[in-house]
User: Fold Bifunctional ligase/repressor BirA from Alicyclobacillus hesperidum.
Amino acid sequence: MNFDENPVRDRLIALFAEAAGPVSGEELSHALGLSRTAIWKQIKALEQVGFAFAASPRVGYRAVTIPDELMAPLVEPHLPLTASLGRPLFWAAERASTNVTALEWAAQGLPHGSVVTAAVQTGGKGRRERAWVSPQGGMWFSVLVRQPCALHHAPDLTLLASLAVWRALAESGVSAEIKWPNDILVAGQKVCGILAQMRADGEWVDHAVIGIGINANFPAEQLPEEIRHRATTILSACGFALERPRVLAAILTELDRLYRGLATGEGFASVRREWLAHCQTIGRDVEVAIGNEIVRGKAVDVDDQGSLLVELADGNVRQLHSGEVLFSGSENLR
Assistant:
């Protein structure tokens, strides 16, 4: 099953990314086993997705602009040789949803560690099937993990993913916080959501797709007006753009480390203290939506299982295994 691999395109991008200067048509033809006419067509196709080239007679082609898309040849150089996540990586200019694609391909034999990315999503989803606007400049990707953990550890998958994202963003100079259970906030506004979809086999998770959406390199004005009071983008909030392939590689590297521990029984409990240090939910008065129920109280802790502990008005503490935290009754969840 080839899925949507494009080895010729990826090899061509890698050749230009690695080149110190112009690359002749003859060199490209020899390296790729294609005619010069076929090379020209491949270059024109790359120009349609943001690449720019300068061509000089008898000298060759030089890549003037290489966009920071989440493409395999641009992410691969930043991945450790031992990484089990991120290889293979499938990029497309547009997908309805990276999670939907990854789930469909998982049923067809997509290997463990595969990552599905898109420049744009037209049908991205958040919690409860809410639309997730996914324009050019964001980071939209899904990671497939096979048999990652026992079923009772399934909630750890997104909790650990939130920590992996936090670590990678911190490495890039983004001051972020975690909102239970797995949102990432910058300056109190949401910039990242995580959605896990999985299939169980008895008491084990057979496979899971971890979908991550990061509002990265586009202005907050491109978000729907009705959520701008509580969501933003890293570009707008921080004033700088991320080097997206490097950040994706950092997320995958951190996720790989955390999931390796999960497979050996070291789940969320082993990193709970670190996770709590970056969680801004604790100590706040919250409203937690659980289905049609709203639980009101003060968030006092998150236990080793990742459950939120909420102190109610009567002094009792309620353990919430899942839900959506609101900090005000008017908050419009995304």
